[in-house]
Amino acid sequence: MILIHLRKFKNWVVWSWTYLWAFWFLLVVFVLYYLRGPLKISENIGMATMFLSTLTPKFYVALTGTSSLISGLILIFEWWYYRKYGTSFIEQVSLNHLGPLLGPQDYNGNTNGEANGNATSPSQTQSTQVMQTAWRERNPQERVNGAKAALEKNPDCATAYILLAEEDACTIVESEKLLKQAMKAAESNLRKSQLSQPHGGNGDNVLRRDINVLIYIKRRLAMCARKLGRLKEAVKMFRDLTKEVQPIMSVLHVHENLIEALLEMQAYADVQAVLAKYDDGSVPRSAALCYTSALLKVRQVSEKFMTESGLIKRSLSASEMNAIEAIHRAVEYNPHVPKYLLELKPMVFPPEHLLKRGDSEAVCYVFFHLQHWKRVDGALQLLACTWEGTFASIPRPLEKGNLFFPYPPCTECPDREILPAHHEVSVFPERETPFFIMFTAGLCTFTALIAFLTHQYPDQMAIVAKTVVGWMSLPVIYIMDKLENLLPASFLQILSRV
After folding, report:
1. For residue 388, what is the DSSP state?
2. Burial of 149 by CB count in 10 Å (0-12 exposed, 13-18 middle, 19+ buried)?
3. Are residues 135 and 50 in the same domain?
4. Strand runs (DSSP E) across 374-428, as ranges?
5. pLDDT 10s digits, 427-475
6. 375, 398, 430: which is the final residue of a domain?
7. How far is CA 357 from CA 6, 65, 194, 400, 413, in A?
8. Considering the domain boundaries, does residue 437 fall inside one?
């Protein structure tokens, strides 16, 4: 409870300084100018100058010590904030709150921006505007009400059906029914766009929007078929979608949905064919591609590890080495996945968005693919024995990778925003506090405290210093007395002459 109040107070302070600092500055300047006579500002400045000229060196020692104390406290707070959130508090406040004041930014909160562009048809203008507002609503009920209002204005509003299917439908069957209505509306809108809209300018934007909406609906229908157990139908729909060459395909990752459906059918040969097509760099890498490739290679040798106690008791064959290398490759790409596959960390429901190579991607992958790893006997045992060996080849993952680019250092903060607050975000590599930071912070604080106490209580601190020096010298005096008793006097005299 105390931490919640402190966080609210910190947020309030940040907000106040972000938006009210200019008003406060002008108000202070006006008050000082208006009260320049009663406050006798000129006379006070002259007196301050005389006071500063009469200060003793002790004052400057105390001032230096106090500034060191404040700097040390700031350093400790920055270190604590960095350990907890993985970024600098000052930098975050500067970028998130002061940055918008320095330059305009165009932010669009609509996560379906490509599917909700500005329509040029007068019959669709009102429904489009209503849906643009609905997508931005934070309240789910307001979004649903906006979609229903858009359908009243335009029964062929495909995006309204999409929103209702995703947020208002209670079952997958209801969602599939709404998506089929959305597909009819999207096909009708696409035909109108192809026939009536001129090429170039806004016409191309509307046509591209309608194509993207139709592709998105088809993918969602294929996902509904997969969830309802119609695997062959889902695979056919996913295969048809993979033939599209639209730019949105690089965002939807339909090939990953196809791989998951084929794994559910245990069609491993077809999965290998899909991997051969997409795991060559033609599409962005992902945990699904890397770990599925590892699973297929592990499947060929995993039965041998169901009874054997370890890998070091015999030499490994070429296929076993390939399987281990595939595991190392997958772990290097996303090191968060093995802990979820081995059930060493609790799972949560997959988020709406994910970050490549981050904890959110690991959660999404394991949520849908854990059953496929369990279906292959011995796969998880082999993974448990070999996945930690990856880190021997990448001792500094943030600086240099082995098969991929260095691991990005900025995944923790986005994952904290994407995943639920109760979920403990996995961090890689685990940050250890550098000794230099701790030593510097402690030394700075201790020195500032000693300087301040010496300035305020010089007599008492002198007594304390003498006492501490006396205590520290006791072991030395004791050792010297023992040496005098053990060694002959002539030997000590020779050492003193040297």
Report:
1. G
2. middle
3. no
4. none
5. 887 765 555 566 666 767 777 777 777 777 777 877 887 787 778 778 8
6. 430
7. 33, 45, 39, 15, 13
8. no
